[in-house]
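Allow me, if you will, to draw on your knowledge of protein folds for a short while. The matter concerns a single protein, recorded as an amino acid sequence and a row of backbone structure tokens. Could you please explain, in whatever detail you think fit, how the structure tokens follow from the sequence? I remain grateful for any guidance, and I place the record below:

…
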Amino acid sequence: MTTLDGIVGLQPESLDRSDPEGVIALLARACSNTGRWGADDALGTLNHIDEETRAVAAGLVRRGRAFSLSLPFDANGPQNGWRRRTNPVHTMLDTGIDAERGIQGFPHGLGGADDVVAMPLQCSTQWDGLGHIFDHGIAYNGRRAGDVVTSAGDQVTGIETAAAHIAGRGVLLDVGRLLGDDDHGTGGELPDGFAITTDHLHACIEQQGPTARIGRGDVVLVRTGRLARARREGWGQYAGGPAPGLSITTAGWLHRSDIAAIATDTWGFEVRPNEFDDAFQPLHQVVIPHVGLYVGEMWDLDALAADCAEDGVFDFWLTAAPIPFTGAVGAPVNPLAVK
């Protein structure tokens, strides 16, 4: 059985696959930020981004080239209906046809178009908020889950609390390019079930050079190449199925590095199938309610990764504010990386 003394150097091969609860409990103790920023804190690791780090990050804009890291929000998206998550439904309320026919009721020839979208807030490129995952009924900062998220939404750590915070230095760790195969010319793709360890992250930083070094307040983007494969082969089981991703053994690194947030090009951020015989998203269960870490999923990192590989620069200005739906536990985002 894994012990607290051995948790720092934990490797996937040393995990007790029959004891997810035990490993989660040890990691929760070792990686807890409960009370770190006070009993009333609602920002978690976003506290690592301050005015100084943001001002320094603004100087990373060298060429002014911008990359949208968002997938399209449309009916052809990645969702397959699991747990009632559907792709966006876009409906027009007023159209050009209505305007041409003069049936909109506006004076002096004015016409217009209007529309509405219905969708789950985590159906495409998005942030997991701090009210999204609990551990044994406990939410971020030691609060009871029922005191945080009610039928009225997240009353404490709703996604609107992050609206003005996620802007600063972004760093791409292109693990797919470093360790994956590039048989299809997509920049490298890791196989499904590949568990990215702390050693892999360190090797990627070392290989990419000084601009890939991680510091306090950074938003780390990990490219696996899984989205490139989905783009080539079709969505299939991209949403919820097997995928490369972070090993639960990276929890200590995610905590110790003092990053503000992390995002990947996969549906679920962590490796799937998960690293236990009977588990579901155990790394989420550690990093969201205990570390207070913001987790981004389904980010499109391919064009940015190609540019980083070409010019050898892996850090950039990143702004990734969630749409501030009051009380939401997650939200869509159109992240912009500017180099």
